[in-house]
Request: fold
Amino acid sequence: MKNLLFGLIAICTSTFHVCAQLDLKQIMSGSDFVGNSPESYAWSIDGQSIYFYWNPENKIGSNLYQYSIKDQKYTKLSDSEASSVVFFDAAQRDFQRQFMSDEGVLWSVDKATGLRQTHLQTTNGVYNVQRAKSPTIVLFQQGDQVYSLDIQSGSIRQLTNFNAGDKKTQQKDSSFLEKQQVELFEFIRDKNERSTYYKKQGETSRFSFPKEQYVGATSWSDIQVDPSVNYAVLRITEEADAKPTSVEQFVTNDGFTKHQLARDKVSANEPNQKMVLYQMGADSLIYLDFSKLTDIRLKPAYLREKDTVSQYKQDRPLFIHAVKFAQNKPLALCDVRSSDNKDRWIVLINMEKASVQEIEHQHDEAWIGGPGISSWNEADGNMEWIEDGESFYFQSEETGYSTVYQYELSKGKKTCLWPVAKTEVYEVRISKDRKNLYLEYNPCEIGKTGHHAFGKLSLENLIFTPYTNLQVGYNEVMLSPDEKNLIVRKSFANKPWELYIEQNNSSKSILKQITHSTTKAFDAYSWIDPQVISIPASDGVAIFARIYEPAKETKNGAAVFFVHGAGYLQNAHHYWSTYYREYMFHHLLREKGYTVIDLDYRASEGYGRDYRTAIYRHMGGRDLEDFVDAKAFMVKNYGIDANRVGMYGGSYGGFITLMALLTKPNEFACGAALRSVTDWAHYNHEYTNNILNSPETDPEAYRKSSPIYFAENLQDPLVMLHGMVDDNVQFQDVVRLSQRFIELGKKDWDLAVYPVESHGFKESYSWYDEYRRILELMEKNLK
Reply:
């Protein structure tokens, strides 16, 4: 890999003034040109050092670095030094020893002395280390079972004996002949009596073992044991009957194509999870009952429209998240979701009584989601105990924006802890004294939006204190073990991610940058912080966008819309974009005289529940209308020629580009669609089922949302670009649409394929070829 530390060709660096165009090939070399930002950072156990992975020399692979708080400098660790590093584990904050498992070894380190001890070494694997309330007891999992280690005595005890499937019962032969043998022969009767005696003797032991428990499934989640070591819970999954897709690799080591299984497609088949409680004292296994959850059998509104029967005959399938144990009571919190993601229940599990109590019910006729809540069924939301066994915090979109709430069990009372208008809370962490919540949040109003800020909320008086140095750009924060210092991973729109350190003080401390990752070539260019503007949509909602305006003397009156991917993602912001190559490409377009608009269309992240769900049952509807409205706004207010507006984007952005050209012909002069979904019935279940339900139950939603049904409308120049080993939006998508174009006799479209690329391109030559084609398309049709 070349170390690109040469100056930019065609850039005048005098006073950082740009005097010529950027070089496309250099931009598309990615981190070779920009530099490699630090990643995967952590505190040392004593809080005196920061560890992070970094590759400032642009070699193959990153190295572990150590930054000393005392010396205020970093050093690159050797492989042997790196292998002995222990990262601070907040879950073991209150223990003198911190336990880890690695390569079949259970080991620990004393936080005060740094001394290490190996407790178990085995080839069978050790994982899922948990701590009991007693500091001398450590829990770990081997295979399907949980064991406890007594640190003082060194003894190890098996706590569970779970088995897959159902217990096989031996059928007793009760035929006439067997009964006759017992009746007639003393020998048979004596033999049976001896057999019964010895069997009973064999079951008697000087040692107690947990009896075999059959969980009725072939696999289950990691086993969670409560701090008292009296109870364990596990989640079992009944998998949906779904056929996996496959991806073919064409460029391989041996010259033969390679067949690779991939994800399922969206369908009405839903997996179902159950939770099993194991009471160790009684040595009994109990399936917890969730059948009393509010509206557990209620059909969603779109089905009730045409069905007089509003209830299913059976409970809806569920996704059950990992529990949050109380430390001193037999209680656990659990986040439960319906598999159709219309409902969320937060429940309290009383493990002593094996009971389930519903605490909070959230319902959304579109789908449950939002920052700190998650729209992915198996991704945990923010939820934790405040006062042990008495109160806890969680997040909800009840106000229309995701913020943090407290629930007090004894009072049965829910309180919004931070009722700030038009603000989304992303992360919540409780202080070690449990008196404060640290929040990462995103304001949603013009002039404030596009920043990921940090502050502290007092649980005693609900006074919120924003941290002065952590309000601009993106501020991702990790507290030190003693909470006196902060690691801040920070970026700006025109400055990539770097690590900073700051004292845990809201206003008086200094934010010190500890890494410098960008190359001289990147630094030589004057990158802009694009203005974030507000555009009024036709339905009255304000839409936010980044705008890249060319200089007056080079402005050519043409515009290019960039459509970010994912749908649920924010890109009209003031921090370093995940689309950083596109960010640089927009500078190149800007230099050529184009005005570039990067729109956070409806469905984008960071603007509340109604914004998030505006595409429910019609992708390519309200979201696409936002681009039409934005185009009209640009024509009216920025001097853009309505006949010279192009569009490009990848993934969901490619989908929107296709929908623009196929459902609104002649609205946009041309489009480039990268790794695009062309038929939502062929995309994955987890994402698509939230928004369009299933193709079997809501076929009209799929028909009006899928570009392939509008192929006959193609009139404007289109180029499609797709990786052939894409296991996300698979190559089949673009192949099927291409076949439709061929059968319809469509002209002025092109397909570029990339044999070694998946959904996210890796090779710089692929990036360059892709964006060369996009640039040529715009230059040909917009100038």
